[in-house]
């Protein structure tokens, strides 16, 4: 991987790995999960993103964090430059739903538990997973500031936020706020204002679900999505380049701004390697113009 991005004072590979598919329902077995993480590391990925709530319904908080710990411990190569990012402030219900808890006392406990699961040192990047409508956002951010001051957390980020919430986080956390993680993809571009603001402020913008609208099956061959009138451009460019539409989508995201750092999920080594290769795919101006005409759906974020 020859292209890099910044998270505050940390340099990471331009494409990260979203570890959610490795630890929630439908996850692969342990052998394949570890192989997927190792394939990403082999390909130059140095940002691994998880959350304490990434576990199956009825499971224990932190299963995803523990999985990454096992993957790093079993990896035969260098890991000192790997940044593990985790999130706190959400939970799971037994029926598969998601909860939000932004109470300062909960966030403090959650971060301390995440730090223990990740090895006991400061968490490289800790992200407030989602604003809690029952708690003033400034109070939740205040807990993150306390965690930074205490050394539990080295760098901070926020997720699922609007521009006003980003500016408030910047005011409360200062330059220790380094990232924003919102849903953004070829199909869902509602966070365009947040992406632009991050570029202006020098904050890393981490699109979650960055391959939205690009058929998963396209890696394995021709897909009905090829004929989609809005997103077919990604498939046309992919065919011309001899690469997957997913790789084109990630390269397009990287071209949106120097601060964009996509974190595509993967549940098999082949997908992790293909995503990482997007860092070396530089799209031409003509291709970018063609892709700019592909219409997003504006679907609501989950």
The rounded Rg comes to: 18 Å
Instruction: Identify the overall geometry.
Output: globular
Helix/strand/pairing category:
alpha/beta
Number of helix segments?
10
Low-confidence blocks of residues: 216-227, 297-302
> Taking all residues together, what is the mean pLDDT?
92
The count of DSSP E runs of length 2 or more, i.e. the number of strands, is 11
Beta-strand fraction estimate: 15-25%
- Through-space gap between termini: 31 Å
User: What summary fits the major beta sheet?
Assistant: 7 strands, parallel
Q: Please bin the fraction of helical residues.
A: 25-40%
Q: How is the largest sheet built, in terms of strand order? A: 3-4-5-8-9-10-11
Order of helices and strands: EEEHEHEEEHEHEHEHEHHHH
What is this structure's SSE topology?
Blueprint: E1 4-7, E2 10-13, E3 17-18, H1 30-42, E4 47-49, H2 63-74, E5 83-88, E6 90-92, E7 98-100, H3 104-117, E8 123-128, H4 137-150, E9 153-159, H5 163-173, E10 177-183, H6 192-201, E11 204-208, H7 232-241, H8 245-256, H9 269-276, H10 285-292
Parallel strand pairs: 3-4, 4-5, 5-8, 8-9, 9-10, 10-11
Antiparallel strand pairs: 1-2, 6-7
Helix pairs in contact: 1-2, 1-9, 3-4, 4-5, 7-8
């Amino acid at each position: 991987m020859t292209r890099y991005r910044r998270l505050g004072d940390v340099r990471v590979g331009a494409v990260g790995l979203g570890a959610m598919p490795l630890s929630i329902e439908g996850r692969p077995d342990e052998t394949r999960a570890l192989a997927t993480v190792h394939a990403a590391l082999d390909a130059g990925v140095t940002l691994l993103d998880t959350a304490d709530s990434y576990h199956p319904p009825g499971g224990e908080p932190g299963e995803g964090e523990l999985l990454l710990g096992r993957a790093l411990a079993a990896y035969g190569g260098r890991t000192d430059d790997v940044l593990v990012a985790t999130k706190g402030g959400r939970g799971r219900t037994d029926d598969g739903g998601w909860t939000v808890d932004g109470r300062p006392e909960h966030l403090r406990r959650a971060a301390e538990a995440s730090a223990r699961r990740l090895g006991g040192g400061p968490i490289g990047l800790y992200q407030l997973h989602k604003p809690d409508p029952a708690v003033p956002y400034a109070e939740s951010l205040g807990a993150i500031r306390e965690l930074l001051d205490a050394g539990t957390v080295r760098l901070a980020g926020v997720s699922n936020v609007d521009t006003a919430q980003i500016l408030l986080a910047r005011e409360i956390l200062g330059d220790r706020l380094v990232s924003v993680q919102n849903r953004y993809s070829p199909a869902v571009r509602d966070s365009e204002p947040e992406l632009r603001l991050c570029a202006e402020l020098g904050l890393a913008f981490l699109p979650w679900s960055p391959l939205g609208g690009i058929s998963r099956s396209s890696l394995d061959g021709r897909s009905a999505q090829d004929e989609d009138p809005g997103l077919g451009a990604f498939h046309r460019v992919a065919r011309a380049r001899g690469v997957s539409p997913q790789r084109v989508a990630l390269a397009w995201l990287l071209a949106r701004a120097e601060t964009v750092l996509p974190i595509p999920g993967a549940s098999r080594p082949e997908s992790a390697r293909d995503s990482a290769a997007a860092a070396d795919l530089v799209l031409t101006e003509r291709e970018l113009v063609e892709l700019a005409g592909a219409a997003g759906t504006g679907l609501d974020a989950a």
